[in-house]
Specification:
This protein has 19 helices and no strands. Helix 5 runs antiparallel to helix 9. It is mostly helical.
């Protein structure tokens, strides 16, 4: 049985959709434990059910130090796990690797409530901290694998759309888990249901991926010959490692990779901005900033607005990605010009919005600036982020792992410093962080626009090419 293309859609889009939901499932695992803790601390039950739940009795005694440690556990291991994932994605069967990771985390979510309920006083905190560390390890490993698989499925006409999948998937997972929490929190022992819900969603994805997923379009059993020929004619320099067991594993060209100028451009660009994107422009930071210094109450951030805003983010992101691909596919504008224009809009827009956010004094002003911060962030997804898939599709997972693992270290250092010292944030410190981040965005965009070559890297080429016609494209022309 094969599936034929219809209205420009085909099996490749099914694969991209599965990978989007994998990003969402991993994000659910990432946020689930902390949300469960929050529910356990805030749920209101009658006295009998309250005292029957030993874990809840233990959790309500946890203070800021314990919560900070739980949050930090993920950050301590993620950069190292991400680098390891970049190596493994070129050595293992990526379909089986993703299946094993999600299945293991799903089973872990099912068993954890039983473990912590029985021995909550002695191992409750240790168990929850261990789960955060384990999730950090497997999330770090899974992301390069997902990028490596995307590199085998994306065509030159879908690069922008594929590069936004990580953002769309993470936001989707956030909407699902927070939306579910709103209803789960009304039930008795709702904190346990967070884990059961996460486990169920993970197992559903495993079934779908086992049935329909494939690590490469040439090994997929239900791709039509027409779509396969289309992908061969619209991909570039794809090798054949991993398709046949006798061929062996893809070699690492360490010297060539680390002497490529574009790699260091990506490291500088992401290094200057990654810490702010993942540490400053996140809901906890913005909530603390406005709740502490502008007297806005948490009730103003209700679940309906949260879900509505995030759904709008998903729609806007998809539209921008589709439009960027449409412009490139028509061939009237150079692909490199589209990438760098979108990146300039994203980085300059975020920088200006962060400066204005530092001056926000009213609720309406704050909401407008928060919207523009998120809106301009989307443009970076179709700017510098496309390079992970465009620069070297045979090593897309490894390139992503190198850049992400190294640029995540400053964020991990910030989390570690905050955990150890419990720094008290003042309005001046908040504003200084926003202004510094804005300045770094200006520098990062200048480096990317002037120094990134937008060419296929030399180390991407292989003697084990696909047998049919394949494109070798210089994206600067």
């Amino acid at each position: 049985m094969v599936c034929k293309q219809c209205c420009g859609l085909g099996v490749r889009h099914v694969q991209l959709l599965l990978m989007t939901f994998c990003f969402a499932i991993v994000q659910i695992f990432h946020e689930g434990p902390l949300l469960a803790i929050m529910l356990a601390k805030t749920e209101e039950h009658d006295s009998s059910s309250h005292h029957e739940d030993q874990f809840k009795n233990t959790v309500v005694m946890w203070g800021r130090r314990e919560i900070d440690l739980l949050d930090a556990g993920w950050h301590y291991v993620y950069p190292f796990a991400c680098f390891a994932g970049g190596i493994l994605c070129n050595k293992l069967n990526n379909k089986h690797s993703l299946l094993g990771i999600v299945f293991f985390l799903s089973i872990l979510c099912y068993t954890l409530p039983t473990i912590v309920k029985r021995k909550s006083e002695s191992i409750g905190f240790i168990a929850m901290f261990s789960v955060r560390v384990i999730i950090g390890i497997f999330q770090g490993i899974s992301e390069p694998i997902l990028y490596q698989v995307m590199g085998r499925w994306v065509t030159i006409n879908d690069l922008s759309f594929a590069s936004i999948l990580c953002e769309v998937g993470c936001v989707t997972g956030r909407v699902i888990i927070h939306g579910s929490m709103y209803f789960i929190g009304k039930n008795v022992h709702g904190w346990t249901s967070v884990f059961y819900t996460s486990g169920n969603l993970g197992l559903l994805w495993c079934v779908a991926w086992f049935t329909f997923g494939a690590g490469d379009f040439r090994s997929c059993f239900y791709v039509s010959s027409d779509e396969k020929n289309y992908m061969i004619n619209n991909t570039y320099d794809l090798d054949s490692y991993g398709l046949i067991s006798e061929i062996g594993k893809r070699p690492f060209r360490w010297k060539t990779i680390f002497t490529t100028m574009d790699l260091y451009v990506l490291l500088l660009t992401n290094g200057l901005t990654h810490w702010s994107r993942t540490h400053l422009l996140v809901p906890p930071f913005m909530l603390e900033y406005f709740n502490s210094f502008h007297s806005e109450t948490p009730e103003q951030f209700d679940i309906n607005k949260f879900i509505g805003v995030n759904i709008a983010i998903i729609l806007v992101t998809v539209v921008i990605g589709a439009v960027a691909d449409r412009i490139v596919s028509r061939g009237k504008v150079r692909a490199s010009h589209v990438r760098k224009t979108c990146n300039s809009i994203g980085f300059w827009g975020k920088a200006i919005s962060m400066v204005l956010t530092g001056h926000a004094s009213t609720s309406v002003y704050r909401r407008v600036m928060s919207f523009f911060l998120v809106f301009f962030s989307v443009f970076a997804c179709v700017g510098v982020d496309v390079a992970f898939l465009e620069m070297a599709p045979n090593y897309s997972g490894f390139i992503y792992a190198i850049v992400t693992s190294l640029t995540s270290l400053p964020r991990s250092a910030l989390v570690l410093a905050n955990t150890l010292t419990h720094l008290t944030m003042t309005p001046a410190v908040f504003k200084a962080l926003l202004y510094i981040s804005a300045l770094l965005h200006f520098f990062a965009n200048f480096i990317y626009v002037t120094c990134f070559s937008s060419r296929i890297a030399d180390f991407n080429r292989s003697e084990l090419m696909i047998q049919t016609k394949s494109l070798s494209i210089n994206f600067s022309s």
